[in-house]
């Protein structure tokens, strides 16, 4: 009886704090109903409904940003509201909106059900938003599964394509393994945080409070290690990246674009929150045994960041398929973002930690913009069925389709990190955060890897402008939706590269968990 009394808590319901998520989920259900009852000639309207829902969710997030001062929580700590959550939420909404614009023509050309795709995309967006807003490990897992299940289906959305089916199956099988690792890590952490008077907890803030008195440090080590493996798979870090090239190549190009930007950012959102706020730096000054967990995961991240940057860039050199090349590029960029993560983990002062977190969010925002722009061009050139995705398919198109070649060149240069593009500022931000924490060798390795990446990025540009084409080239028509997506991404690349201050200042994150240093 005392146990049940201990577990009971009055529900802290506050629907306003999940207003953006409620909007997106409602829109997803509305799209399914419209798709079920609308005439086939009217089903295009689901794209407009999706964009309206994203705009409404963005307005709701802006209202939350302006209305709530400081951190807030609801549903007994399951949901939190802070700048980390809202910053990532805007990244997710931008990614989803651009994915819709890029995918409209693809679905028309391949006669795919638009309503089903848009509904799945909305549910995936809701899953990402719940991952960023989670204040509890159970909520992290719930959001991850909502995102994952929708993404598994989208990977195999081209049902008659064997490559798409293979992509979906590989992602499902390996994703299930990674989810099992994450869930087992959550279970071990729950057991390790139990005390003589209290049962274990999965609340991130409560885990941090109990670390100084942890009675089972080895169990905590095992739980943290398994969660690190689970998150490492979701953000495609080495050595947990093996699924990425095959899945990215086989999935439809708009889905690949979404996966490379959205789920990766969502994985980082949860990864940052769990490890920075459940196993924070401050614990080292209170309990040396529990503090070793912080040292262990930080050291592991340094090694993983080096491996991820190096493996991604070196293997990308050997790729002759553009989608596989961009897949390995995506792996390398996860390594660059981890550099900022390491800086946040090593920061002894809250201001330094918040600046490093803002650098990671800004980097993922810039990566999402330039990556989605690049995949929009790849989608146009690939045509229906992704028939033209080899590097040789780009031979000599620079002067025959100058607008497409210019756009792709700009995005590749931004991915490389050339000034004055967004990619340059993004790398400066994460490298500067690491330098502030004296990770000089890590930054040097990051700069050397950037130099290595110049080979495969510039190779595609050289192929477009200086290689002779041996086959006929029919310049693809640029539909209005993809033209709008390209315009938005080009403006984003230049705006974030030339005027980043306003965005960076808005992303300065306040702590969700404050553990006093004694």
Key words describing this protein structure:
single chain, about 525 residues, mainly alpha, two-stranded antiparallel sheet, globular
Rg from Cα: 22 Å
Across the major sheet, the strand order is 1-2
Overall pLDDT metric: 89
Number of helices: 19
The domain count comes to 1
**Which structural category fits the helices and strands?**
mainly alpha
Q: Beta fraction of the residues?
A: under 5%
Shape: globular
Number of strands: 2
Low-confidence segments, given as residue ranges, are 509-518
Explain the overall architecture.
This protein has helices at 2-7, 19-37, 45-67, 83-110, 114-133, 137-155, 162-192, 204-210, 217-234, 244-250, 253-278, 288-317, 322-346, 350-382, 402-416, 422-436, 440-466, 480-498, 501-506, and strands at 72-74, 79-81. It is mostly helical. The protein has one domain (10-506). Strands 1-2 form a two-stranded antiparallel ribbon. Helix 8 (204-210) runs parallel beside helix 11 (253-278), helix 11 runs antiparallel to helix 14 and helix 14 (350-382) runs antiparallel to helix 15 (402-416).
Quick structural gist:
The protein is mainly alpha-helical and 518 residues long.
Summarize the helices and strands and which ones pair or pack.
Layout: H1 2-7, H2 19-37, H3 45-67, E1 72-74, E2 79-81, H4 83-110, H5 114-133, H6 137-155, H7 162-192, H8 204-210, H9 217-234, H10 244-250, H11 253-278, H12 288-317, H13 322-346, H14 350-382, H15 402-416, H16 422-436, H17 440-466, H18 480-498, H19 501-506
Antiparallel strand pairs: 1-2
